[in-house]
Design brief:
- The protein has 6 helices and 4 strands.
- With 171 residues, it is α/β, with parallel strands linked by helices.
- The protein has 2 domains: 40 residues; 114 residues.
- A 4-stranded parallel β-sheet has the order 1-4-2-3, with helices on one face.
- Helix 3 packs antiparallel against helix 4 and helix 4 crosses helix 6.
- It starts with 9 loop residues before the first helix and ends with a helix.
């Protein structure tokens, strides 16, 4: 679907392209035509208001195949993942300083029963690392997707999931 804009200038064409991209992205995510249309309208309103869209964050295992849709790929584990060659990892940055402390990581040991306590303690550690977070956010293109990579098997109970939520709150 394409979106028409009454302004025939370069800015109008760019806005129309952004709306079309938002519509197509929404369709890919499985939204119905009406939901996708709403996403496109919001993209146009944000553009009119001069608002830069919020960065799109995604969690992914480092062992998953890299995709052009990944955008900026950042490994957020303190230790390099086993069996992954650095040349094949296709990462843009290794932010090991944003990973939980060794003590916290070892205490948690990916025990689902400890996840809530782990998340609280890790958020406390992240508050102390705010400068490193700000530096990372300055270095990356916020118009692209940011893919946080980890070797963790269960992404939902991982430090990467906590970091993702923390980053969303920091934006």
């Amino acid at each position: 679907m394409t979106w028409e804009h009454s302004d025939n200038s370069h800015a109008g064409a760019a806005q129309s392209r952004k709306a079309s991209e938002a519509y197509e992205d929404a369709k890919i995510r499985g939204l119905c035509d009406e939901g996708a249309r709403e996403c496109a309208i919001e993209a146009m309103r944000a553009k009119d208001a001069g608002v830069v869209p919020m960065m799109n964050l995604e969690l992914k295992r480092i062992y998953d195949e890299p995709s052009p849709d990944d955008g900026t790929r950042v490994l957020v584990d303190r230790l390099w993942p086993r069996g992954v060659a650095k040349a094949k990892a296709a990462i843009d940055e290794w932010a090991k300083d944003l990973a939980p402390s060794t003590e916290l990581r070892q205490w948690f040991d990916h025990d689902a029963d400890k996840f809530d306590d782990f998340a609280q303690k890790y958020r406390h550690e992240l508050k102390k690392k705010q400068q490193a977070i700000d530096d990372l956010l300055k270095r990356i293109d916020k118009r692209k997707r940011l893919t946080l990579l980890t070797a963790t098997k269960d992404l939902q109970i991982s430090h990467a999931a906590v970091l993702e939520q923390y980053l969303k709150q920091s934006l």
